[in-house]
Amino acid sequence: MKKFINCQSSDTDSGRFSGGATSSDSSFRVQDINNNLLIKILITPLSKQVYASVSSKALVSHVKQKLLDDFGSQINDSIN
Predict the structure, then answer these.
(1) Which of 11, 58, 62, 9 is nearest to 38 (CA)?
(2) CB 45 within 8 Å of CB 75
(3) Domain ranges for the chain
(4) Shortest CA distance to 27 belongs to which of 10, 3, 8, 11?
(5) How many whole angstroms from its chain centre is CA 15?
(6) What's the rounded Cα separation, in Å, for the pair 5 and 57?
(7) Long-range interactions of 39-46: CB distance < 8 A, separation 24+
(8) Coil, helix or strand for 7?
(9) DSSP-assigned beta bridge partners for residue 29
(10) Can you tell me the distance from the alpha carbon of 17 to that of 9, in angstroms, rounded to the nearest whole number?
(11) In whole angstroms, what separates CA 30 from the centre of its chain?
């Protein structure tokens, strides 16, 4: 499955976009959304650092549930 993303960049001070409208090339590109993302998760109370490879379509709640499955017995409810 593919989706279109707007690849224009915005100047945060003026809100103007660079490229795109005056360019002969389309400012939209096709991106495959089945890519995986490598994310770094810090679990401060346990002094742990975890790297997880997740689908770019994964929901934060799914990632949190996986972490709770793996570390749930070590995490107190107060920091959950």
Answers:
(1) 58
(2) yes
(3) 2-75
(4) 8
(5) 23
(6) 15
(7) 39/63, 41/67, 43/67, 43/71, 43/75, 45/75, 45/76, 45/79, 46/71, 46/74, 46/75
(8) coil
(9) 5
(10) 6
(11) 18
**For residue 53, which amino acid is it?**
S
Give every CB contact of residue 36 below 8 A, 6+ residues apart in sequence.
53, 54, 55, 56
What is the pTM for the complete model shown? 0.42
Residue range 8-60, pLDDT digits in tens: 444 455 555 555 444 444 455 555 556 888 888 888 878 888 888 888 788 88
How far is the C-alpha of 2 from the C-alpha of 33, rounded, in Å?
Answer: 6
Phi, psi values for residue 18, rounded to 5°: -100, 135
